[in-house]
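Q: Given only this backbone (251 positions), what sequence would you predict?
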């Protein structure tokens, strides 16, 4: 007779064991034998197949929820819309440096309309989607260029939308890591100073150290956006570890 082996996490409560009495008994016995490993192997006969399939689907949904629960979700925002943006490249370079369990998602902000309080009556879908992502995030990374000794208009537009309407600031309480890279040596320091002032006002947990004022870009990236400089990679790794620590504390 055909057999179907289903492996499942043994953390399920008894009420969620397989619905077939015989299979339920086999599941309980398997758990008793598998306490050391934290896994169980439940064997179903062919007659149990429909119930086994349902149970497997149930277990997979539980696993998906556990993965989501233990993944640290970080939203990354670039203050530049340029296709060859150095700051967007910086965010991409951060992704493989993320500590275990951290996922960095770079969000698109170029389709947001210009902020107007009149539009708050019916929030634009793109804005609401961004607010929802940020509210669900464990932390935020913002990489900004420096335009005329301040942050770009596109980044200010993002901040204005996400912090509205009044009393529904989606940034509140989130740990925020700021960064910036430029072709010069100043590393967007002035722009980041303004950005930090704004984010502190919005009641975020702005990370003060380490400071990520990066430049010249030619000494940091190769032609494909990979980080060449070992000390820069070490600095970025350290910054992400600090962000992870803040995010754990805030949760």
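A: Predicted residues:
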């Amino acid at each position: 007779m055909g057999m179907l082996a289903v492996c499942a996490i043994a953390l399920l409560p008894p009420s969620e064991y397989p619905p077939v009495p015989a299979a339920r008994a086999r599941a309980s016995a398997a758990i008793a034998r598998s306490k050391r490993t934290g896994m169980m192997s439940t064997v179903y006969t062919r007659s149990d197949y429909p119930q086994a399939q349902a149970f497997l689907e149930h277990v997979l949904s539980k696993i998906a929820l556990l993965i989501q629960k233990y993944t640290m979700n970080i939203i990354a925002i670039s203050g530049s819309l340029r296709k060859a943006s150095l700051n967007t490249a910086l965010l991409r370079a951060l992704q493989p440096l993320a500590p275990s369990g951290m996922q960095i998602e770079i969000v698109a902000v170029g389709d947001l309309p210009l902020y107007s309080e009149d539009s708050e009556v019916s929030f634009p879908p793109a804005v609401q989607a961004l607010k929802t992502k940020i509210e669900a995030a464990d932390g935020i990374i913002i990489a900004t260029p420096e335009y005329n000794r301040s942050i770009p208009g596109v980044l200010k537009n993002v901040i204005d939308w996400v912090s509205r309407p009044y009393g529904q600031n989606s940034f509140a309480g989130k740990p925020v890591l700021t960064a910036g890279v430029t072709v010069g040596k100043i590393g967007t320091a002035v722009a980041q100073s303004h950005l930090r002032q704004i984010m502190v006002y919005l009641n975020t947990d702005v990370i003060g150290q380490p400071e990520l004022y990066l430049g010249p870009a030619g000494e940091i990236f190769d032609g494909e956006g990979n980080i060449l400089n070992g000390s820069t990679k070490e600095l970025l790794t350290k910054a992400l570890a600090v962000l992870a620590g803040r995010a754990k504390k805030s949760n």
